Backbone:
């Protein structure tokens, strides 16, 4: 897989657009999800993902090996940061508003399996919305680290590559971001009952 | 219904967060496991944080609304990583070089004029008698004779800045570097003051008549032209680069 990826990168660097598009297909899901979680709405996320791949293509010669995934996620992160800054300057809608106004266009939750009851499905949906709202409330540096670690499954070292921060900083941001989300879930009584019962005792 | 759970300090929070990810050293892991067994509050905080992380990990990924593959036809127009190293970049580099050159010329001019106590008297004396080339040589060599002068004859320095100028002038003229100089040197001295036969600290007023009698000529013009040329080159490079970028 790594060899195939390297071959595609080298071929794309020589100008083969189809090889680059093969890389896009490999990572567009990750990149779009990262943009979606950072920006909070589908349209901005799609624009950012497209810009990120275009930027990656333009700067492909600057890629000097290592993890292509981390490299492209880093570009996507920078595009999202730019979009957030521009949004802040223009004072458009807040992230909270974006999350509130887009539940129907957000990821359509489906029954995970046929064994899931409607109650369980409803609870899962509520939990997902609470997490999305909680993520939107996090400072962007904490949100980024939480998304990369818990939603994208990157290791601390890979997150360091994407963010440019050191592992100690990542640990700190991650723990604080998770703690804030825990508070959100706790307030919404969305943590498993046994923990809430213990807390109340 | 609000739970009053004890808040962990940042250090413990980081520890249990990293413990969930399996990112602790063996020693740290043993320590936190020992504490988790003994401290109910820490255990509860750990369970809550682990449940939060699990909820995050269970969050379903969002499906992209479209593919983000690039259209070869559109991208062909934008390609250029390789071809971008064209005239724009070349002129950019030339611009930087030009700026350095201008700075160097300016510095040399300043040093040259400082070297001779009466500014611009030395080049002006020599210039009229010769083609434009010698003045440049003189200006370049002016600082070095002066330095050797000040080192070799500290007595001249005691007299202040005035005497230094004629002496520097004299050493420039008598430098054996240029074969034509011994012939060139007497000419201005004859024109300005025929009495200058022995250089040194004697005649403080001599440079002045020399400066007044000879009109400004080619050396400053050359410098100016060169400066203008490199500035134009730099400006052109910047303009081209900006146009390409825009």
Residues:
């Amino acid at each position: 897989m790594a060899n195939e990826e390297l071959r595609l990168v080298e071929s794309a660097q020589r100008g083969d657009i189809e090889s680059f598009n093969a890389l896009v297909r490999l990572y567009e899901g990750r990149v779009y999800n990262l943009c979606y979680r950072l920006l909070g709405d589908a349209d901005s996320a799609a624009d950012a993902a497209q810009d990120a791949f275009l930027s990656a293509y333009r700067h492909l010669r600057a890629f000097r090996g290592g993890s292509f995934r981390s490299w492209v996620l880093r570009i996507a992160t920078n595009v999202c940061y730019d979009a957030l800054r521009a949004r802040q300057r223009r004072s458009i809608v807040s992230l909270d508003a974006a999350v509130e106004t887009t539940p129907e266009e957000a990821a359509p939750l489906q029954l995970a399996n046929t064994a899931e009851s409607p109650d369980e499905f409803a609870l899962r949906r509520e939990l997902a919305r609470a997490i999305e709202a909680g993520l939107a409330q996090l400072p962007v540096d904490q949100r980024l680290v939480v998304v990369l670690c818990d939603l994208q499954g990157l290791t601390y070292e890979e997150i360091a590559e994407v963010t440019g921060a050191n592992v100690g900083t990542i640990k700190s941001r991650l723990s604080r971001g998770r703690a804030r989300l825990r508070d959100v879930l706790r307030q919404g009584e969305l943590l498993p009952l046994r923990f809430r019962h213990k807390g109340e005792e | 219904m609000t739970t009053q759970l004890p808040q962990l300090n940042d250090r413990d929070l980081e520890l249990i967060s990293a413990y969930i990810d399996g990112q602790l050293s063996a020693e740290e892991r043993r320590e936190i496991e020992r504490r988790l067994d003994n401290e109910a509050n820490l255990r509860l905080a750990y369970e809550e944080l682990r449940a939060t992380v699990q909820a995050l990990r269970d969050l379903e990924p969002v499906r992209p609304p479209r593919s983000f593959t690039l259209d070869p036809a559109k991208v062909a127009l934008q390609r250029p990583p390789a071809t971008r190293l064209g005239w724009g970049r070349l002129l950019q580099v030339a611009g930087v070089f030009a700026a350095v050159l201008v700075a160097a010329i300016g510095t040399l001019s300043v040093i040259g004029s400082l070297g001779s106590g009466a500014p611009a008297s030395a080049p002006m004396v020599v210039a009229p008698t010769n083609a434009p080339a010698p003045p440049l040589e003189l200006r370049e060599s002016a600082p070095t004779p002066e330095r050797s002068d000040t080192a070799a004859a500290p007595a001249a320095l005691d007299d202040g800045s005035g005497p230094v100028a004629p002496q520097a002038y004299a050493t420039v003229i008598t430098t054996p570097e240029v074969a034509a100089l011994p012939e060139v040197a007497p000419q201005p001295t004859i024109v300005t003051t025929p009495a200058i036969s022995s250089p040194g600290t004697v005649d403080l007023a001599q440079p002045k008549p020399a400066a007044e009698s000879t009109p400004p000529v080619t050396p400053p013009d050359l410098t100016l032209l060169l400066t203008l040329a490199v500035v134009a080159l730099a400006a052109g490079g910047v303009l081209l680069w900006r146009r390409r970028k825009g």
User: Anything to note?
Assistant: The radius of gyration of chain B is 38 Å. Chain B touches chain A at residues 1-5, 10, 13-14, 16-18, 21, 23, 44, 47-49, 51-53, 55-70, 72, 75-76, 78-82 (CB under 8 Å).
